[in-house]
């Protein structure tokens, strides 16, 4: 069975479809908000990059704990071998 649709019914269906469509102003407003968010994010990432470079620079000459413990153990062995009293701090 075929249902007949009037011009008025068709117009209502089309209007209903456009009721949920964004306006040009809404799209432009959203674009501005996205642009602002992108600018904010770029600035934040630039700051993070700068801070990471500073941290990396400070860590260039850092001795890792396991390396320190290994060296400490080797120095202790040498002190024992040469009967050097170890210094306690």
Task: Kindly list the characteristics that best describe this protein.
89 residues; mainly alpha; rod-shaped; 3 helices
Structural class: mainly alpha
Number of domains: 1
The count of β-strands is 0
Radius of gyration: 36 Å
Percent in helix: over 70%
Averaging pLDDT over every residue, what do you get? Answer: 91
Indicate the low-confidence ranges by residue numbers: none
Number of helices: 3
What percent strand?
under 5%
Compute the separation of the termini in Å.
98 Å
Overall shape: rod-shaped
What is the element string, with H for helices and E for strands? HHH
Describe the main β-sheet briefly. none
Task: State the gist of this model.
The protein is mainly α and 89 residues long.
Secondary structure: elements and pairs:
Elements: H1 7-19, H2 24-59, H3 65-81
Notes on the structure:
- The chain is an all-alpha fold and 89 residues long.
- It has one domain (7-81).
- The protein has three helices and no strands.
- It has helices spanning 7-19, 24-59, 65-81.
- The longest helix is centred in the middle third of the chain and has 36 residues, at 24-59.
- The termini are far apart.
- The model has no long low-confidence stretch (mean pLDDT 91).
């Amino acid at each position: 069975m075929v249902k007949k649709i009037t011009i008025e019914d068709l117009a209502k269906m089309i209007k209903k479809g456009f009721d949920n469509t964004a306006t040009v102003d809404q799209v432009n407003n959203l674009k501005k908000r996205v642009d602002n968010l992108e600018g904010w994010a770029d600035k934040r990432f630039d700051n993070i990059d700068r801070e990471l470079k500073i941290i990396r620079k400070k860590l260039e000459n850092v001795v890792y704990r396991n390396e320190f413990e290994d060296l400490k153990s080797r120095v202790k062995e040498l002190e024992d071998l040469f009967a050097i009293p170890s210094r306690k701090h």
